[in-house]
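Reagents: none. Just compute today. Transposase.
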Amino acid sequence: MINPDIESWALARAHNIVLNEGLSLAKAAQDLDRKRSRSLVYELRKVITAAIVEAHSASFEPAASKMEAGLPEASAGCNACMTPTHW
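Predicted 3D structure written out:
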């Protein structure tokens, strides 16, 4: 089961990504700007990757560091990759 704090953080992060990079990409696509669309697809990919890495690295940090970063404390296991524990 997903920790509700992690779920809330993930939803807020996804919402922020869609509002920023997603809407910019939609606008470029509407304008038929292929060069800008390609650039924004790369940027969107980069932001999503950074969010995944942030969530994954947060699963290894102490609770105090997570709270400072605005991330919820992880429950048992790694919430980023949904595995019970890391080997």
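The chain has one domain: 9-69.
Action item: order primers for follow-up constructs.
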